[in-house]
Amino acid sequence: MKNELSIKIAEAIIFANDKPISIRSLTNRLPDNVDIGFIIDFLLNKYKDNGFVLEKLGDTLAFRTSSEISDFLKVEKTIHKKLSKAALEILAIIAFHQPITRAEIEDMRGVSVSQGSLDVLFESNWVEPRGYKAVPGKPSTWRTTRNFLDHFGLETIKDLPGISELKAAGLLSRNIGPSVLSRDNISDI
Fold first, then answer.
1. How large is the angle between the packed helices 36-46 and 2-16, nearest 10 degrees?
2. What's the CA gap between 16 and 39, in Å, rounded?
3. Count of beta carbons in the 10 Å neighbourhood of residue 97
4. Which pTM does this prediction carry?
5. Which of 55, 91, 117, 157 has the smallest CB count inside 10 Å?
6. 143-165 as b/e, with b when 16 or more CB fall inside 10 Å?
7. Predicted confidence (pLDDT) per residue in 154-166, tens digit
């Protein structure tokens, strides 16, 4: 029973590490008096013929893709871009006032919206065009995406914090009134 639990713990620790973990570090994180040699041998044998294998590299352990299937995989890398203050402001305005036109965003911010800021949000799949506003010129409107909700752990846009919650968290000054941020007119995505 103790070995079974220790094997599961070791397996999870190795799997969760993005870099090879030293056997010493692994041993220190397991319950006392476990047979680390047995655990390593068990896991090496368990994963020897799978799509991913456990490799012992010197005094470290790491899960790796099996060499016989590595040609079938492609490397996908997520590149994290830090959003500028302007892009964050635009994202917040779109989130709380969607669907909203570029001119309305500019009016709220008091400065023009650079195409680059909208492009970054669009390329990040956090905002998308929503259609056109029924006014002369029919300007396009913007809204947040499902990806935006997923990234921020929201089920619907109505789960955004309200003005009182933002003030309580110290994210807004006390003199900002409800006309600046409002969830009353938000529709679900």
1. 60
2. 17
3. 20
4. 0.53
5. 55
6. bbbeebbeeeebeebeebbebee
7. 899 888 888 788 7
